[in-house]
Design brief:
This protein is α+β, with helices and mostly antiparallel strands and 354 residues long. It folds into three domains: 84 residues, 3-Layer(aba) Sandwich (Rossmann fold), CATH 3.40.50; 59 residues, ATP-grasp fold, A domain (Dna Ligase, domain 1), CATH 3.30.1490; 174 residues, ATP-grasp fold, B domain (D-amino Acid Aminotransferase, Chain A, domain 1, 2-Layer Sandwich), CATH 3.30.470. Helices cover 28% and strands 28% of the residues. The protein is built from eleven helices and 17 strands. Strands 9, 10, 11, 12, 13, 14, 15, 16 and 17 form a nine-stranded antiparallel sheet that branches. Strand 13 and strand 14 form a beta hairpin. Helix 1 crosses helix 9 and helix 4 crosses helix 5. The termini are far apart.
Length: 354
């Protein structure tokens, strides 16, 4: 069986690495010859929304998946056989648009932050501020991009104009205890596989550190929410769901219809990684009924690759290099550490400037 992956970044790269355990063939579609995934796998070199390239990908593969949300749905829908595409394009459409996403989640009686659409300057005129808010573009925002913190009409108007008056939402800031997420897989037989919920630390909107929470109450909440979202959308594959924890209650921040950065620890901390689980779900291979989880933490490497020679000698530390060129705040790799001691944690943080 052959799986086509739209996008050639690190998520596709790690899917290719996982595919070798399952005897699956893969091919990616990406415009760059030296993309992280293209360096280790078969590639079609073309723009992600090139109809002819998508047709070639579809005709040569049994299953199509994607590693990013920012794709042209109109072209995908006109070219690809929907029976081959997982997760389905309906959930992709929802995840692409912050307004549709929040409405969809609220319609399932799941809590999000309070929000309202902002489509014009006129929509701003009567807004009264009781607390700080985030102005967020409805589309194309990720890793803290496409959003601004505002606290009055003046800053809101300025922010909306900075976004070129593109459709946006105004979202009330939430006072939370910490951010967390869950990675979940669902297959065509409506079977689920849940990883432990993790606590996530961000800096400037970018994930820098993930660790296991080991909280049964939050775990149950997260699993119930995931079942609602994935079951109602007939979702097949792995999904990441981000939450705010507010005094023991989980508020959904956003969903990711793909493998997720906060699940990279699963490569070295579980008997089945999120990448392998995703491939198992979409190709209808058996999924684990019980995961074996180790005490693991994940640290993102941002910007440029530091000298990690001292860490590479440690048998419980695993360095993952995406082979990407350096750029400020760019995710170029990550470190997984199993059963780390305090000295090792401090050494990692010092090397990564965390």
């Amino acid at each position: 069986m052959k799986v086509g992956i739209i996008g050639g970044g690190q998520l596709a790269r790690m899917m290719i690495q996982a595919s070798s355990r399952l005897a699956l063939d893969t091919v990616i579609l990406d415009p760059k010859k030296n993309s992280p995934a293209g360096l280790i796998g078969e590639s079609i070199i073309a723009e992600l929304n090139d109809p002819k390239a998508l047709e070639e990908l579809s005709s040569s593969c049994d299953i199509i998946t994607y590693e990013l949300e920012h794709l042209n749905l109109e072209i995908l829908s006109s070219v690809l056989d929907p029976k081959k595409v997982f997760p389905n394009l309906q959930i992709l459409e929802i995840a692409q648009d912050r307004l549709l996403e929040k409405k969809y989640i609220n319609d399932l009686d799941i809590d999000t932050a309070n929000f309202r659409p902002i489509n014009s300057i006129e929509d701003i005129e009567n807004i009264q501020f009781d607390s700080d808010c985030f102005l967020k573009l409805r589309k194309s925002g990720f890793d803290g991009r496409g959003q601004l913190r505002v606290n009055d009409q003046k800053s809101l108007i300025s922010g909306f104009q900075k976004f070129e008056c593109l459709p946006a939402i105004l979202e009330q800031c939430i006072e939370f205890d910490f951010e967390c997420s869950i990675i979940v897989g669902r297959n065509k037989s409506d079977e689920y596989c849940f990883y432990p919920i993790t606590e996530n630390l961000h800096h400037n909107g970018i994930l820098i550190h993930t660790k296991l929470l080991n909280d049964n109450v939050l775990q149950k909440q997260a699993e119930d929410i995931a079942r609602k979202i994935m079951g109602s959308s007939n979702y097949i594959g792995v999904m990441g769901i981000e939450f705010f924890n507010v005094s023991g209650n989980l508020i959904v921040n956003e969903i990711a219809p793909r493998v997720h950065n906060s699940g990279h620890w699963t490569i070295d901390g579980a008997n089945c990684s999120q990448f392998e689980l995703h491939l198992r779900c979409i190709t209808n291979l058996e999924i684990p009924h019980e995961l074996q989880i180790q005490d693991v933490q994940m640290f993102n490497i941002l910007g440029s690759m530091p000298n990690l020679a001292s860490l590479s000698m440690e048998t419980n530390i695993f360095i993952h290099d995406y082979k990407k060129s350096p750029r400020e705040n760019r995710k170029i790799g990550h470190i997984n550490g199993v059963s780390l001691n305090n000295d090792q944690i401090q050494a990692i943080k010092q090397l990564l400037f965390l």
